[in-house]
Amino acid sequence: MRFKGAITALVTPFKEDGSLDIEVLKQLVRFQLKGSIDGIVPCGTTGEAVTLNEEEYRLVVETVVQEIRGKVPVIAGAGSNDTQKAIHCSKIAKESGADALLHVTPYYNKPTPLGLLAHFKAIAKVVNLPIILYNVPGRTGSNVSAATTIKIAKEVPQVVGVKEASGNVPQMMEIIKGVSPSFSVLSGDDAFTLPLMAAGGVGIISVASNQIPKAMHDLTQAALEGDFERARKIHYQWLDLMNINFIESNPIPVKTALSMMGKIKEIFRLPLVAMEDKNREALKAVLKSHKLI
User: Max CA-CA distance within the chain?
Assistant: First the structure.
């Protein structure tokens, strides 16, 4: 299984009492499938996974798997800065039917390159699922160098891809150059999808596809087919939406947008809170300009 195209980092909808809204979660998955999405990541950063307890985590993954019914890959977020907890979440994801795992590199404790290698080896030894490494220095506090990613890819065969959210295109190019052709280099930022794919990447784990799954699918499909004229047209058409989704910490803007679009309730779990008024108005203006609301 090679992971490519537009893969949605799915939001987790909550009810007004703060509990999971499973019926709305099912509706979101159906919306993604209708938009020809190429994969779904439940329980990632965008899904507020760090606020889910074990029972909720299992329920979200199981619900997405059941609703997808094998049509596209389900890549469950299972990362932690505690290797044993990462293994535990990985086991739950596998039991729940996930096709693969997304593992953010350990945050806060800032492991060395050898520590990162040992972390991924430990997970792969226990849970036999493909793993996508997630490098997001803005959240973890440390960058995974191209050399370290390449080393992990070579020494841990279950690590079959990387979600690169470093914003460092030369680093992404070094990874593409150094890994096997079957290794999936995916963007972790919507706005970097086009340049990364022009350099040889194969897709995006996307926030914007929560709102526009068909457009993100079409962008990545055009790039995979080498039709960069079409890919550029789609990219620039939606660039303002890609950028406004990060006017505040993700997933605050995208969940607010989905609420404006009538798809979810605007409910977050602390420490995330509602958008500032000036940012809300800017988001609303972008959504209106695209006739999303």
Answer: 49
